[in-house]
Structure to design on (372 residues):
């Protein structure tokens, strides 16, 4: 009998002199455990992580991307694709309609307060102030707002309306902020966990800040025209200074609007933000889209639409509501862009693409509101 034919002869896959139990243990250690594979979780859609490779999506020298500019190009395509999908899934047009309702309740009291403050200062620039605020709106909208606010300012009760209107505007506009908070929480797919004693001061504080910023922008644009004329006369350039200011004041208003949007995007959602940024891609998208939509809608109403034939005397009101709805959609679309950028930064760091919620809440929801 050959040595290989003996029953106790070692095979080629077993080492001579090794006990069977030890050989089995080594084999088990060599193969990965199923539970270890489960602990690794789903694979990252961007491929294996290589934090030391600065060219990989996880790279950046072993650190997470701090801003949108550090995201790879394919990540931006993912953000764009998911923004379009989430715009539909989050029902942004419906959210914008709710904001339009609260906006109607808040915009007129806020403008009345603004005009009342001008009355207390002894100025009579109502049309100029309101016109600067809604310059991009269709002419029907401007006429409707200016007519209503001018009637109040000409009643001779500016001081009284400044006090009463301030309280009404503060509470009404805070209702708009409450609706906006709910909308952006839905966009971030996160529940509200902040208690009442946190949310109420936040709503009122954002309302006061928004009123101050808008009032400061309108007053600055209105009053500095006289200063530009005085500066032109002093420098001997005449009306050239006024012309230059008439062009430069619109970027100033755009910066005020962008700053206000930045504050809303940072403070409104129940999401822990990486830090305060003076400019976000979503804020830029919101401002640019609002300018384009407002201008385009104004041209449409002027040259193509027939609201007068359909709605008669209510045409101006309908145009105002549609314009406000489009403006709110632009605002929410910018928030959607920032939300998807936050999701993409998490994916680049290795988080699963489908994890919900993908953002870290400032205040976690109550336990009874969490799914079992």
């Amino acid at each position: 009998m050959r040595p290989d034919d003996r029953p106790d002869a070692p095979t080629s896959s077993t080492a001579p002199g090794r006990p069977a139990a030890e050989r089995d243990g080594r084999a088990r250690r060599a193969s990965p455990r199923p539970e270890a594979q489960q602990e690794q979780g789903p694979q990252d859609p961007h491929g294996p992580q290589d934090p030391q490779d600065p060219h990989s999506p996880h790279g950046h020298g072993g650190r997470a991307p701090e801003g949108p500019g550090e995201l790879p190009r394919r990540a931006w395509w993912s953000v764009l694709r998911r923004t379009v999908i989430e715009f539909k899934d989050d029902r942004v047009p419906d959210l914008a309609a709710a904001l339009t309702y609260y906006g109607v309740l808040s915009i007129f009291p806020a403008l009345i307060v603004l005009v009342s403050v001008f009355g207390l200062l002894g100025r009579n620039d109502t049309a100029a102030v309101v016109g600067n605020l809604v310059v991009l709106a269709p002419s029907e909208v401007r006429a409707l707002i200016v007519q209503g606010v001018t009637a109040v300012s000409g009643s001779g009760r500016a001081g009284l309306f400044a006090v009463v209107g301030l309280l009404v505007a503060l509470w009404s506009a805070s209702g708009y902020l409450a609706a906006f908070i709910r909308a952006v929480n839905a966009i971030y797919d996160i529940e509200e966990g902040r208690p009442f004693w946190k949310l109420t001061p936040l709503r009122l504080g954002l309302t006061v800040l928004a009123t101050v910023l808008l009032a400061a922008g309108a007053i600055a644009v209105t009053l500095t025209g006289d200063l530009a004329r005085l500066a032109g006369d002093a420098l001997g350039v005449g009306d050239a200074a006024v012309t230059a200011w008439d062009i430069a004041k619109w970027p100033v208003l755009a910066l005020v609007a962008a700053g206000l949007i930045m504050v809303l995007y940072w403070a409104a959602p129940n999401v822990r933000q990486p830090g305060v940024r003076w400019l976000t891609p979503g804020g830029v998208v919101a401002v640019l889209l609002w300018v384009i939509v407002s201008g385009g809608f104004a041209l449409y109403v002027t040259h193509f639409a027939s609201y007068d034939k359909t709605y008669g005397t209510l045409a101006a009101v309908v145009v105002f509501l549609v314009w406000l709805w489009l403006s709110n959609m632009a605002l929410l679309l910018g928030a959607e862009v920032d939300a998807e950028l936050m999701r993409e930064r998490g994916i680049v760091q290795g988080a699963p693409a489908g994890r919900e919620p993908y953002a870290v809440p400032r205040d976690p929801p109550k336990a009874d509101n969490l799914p079992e």
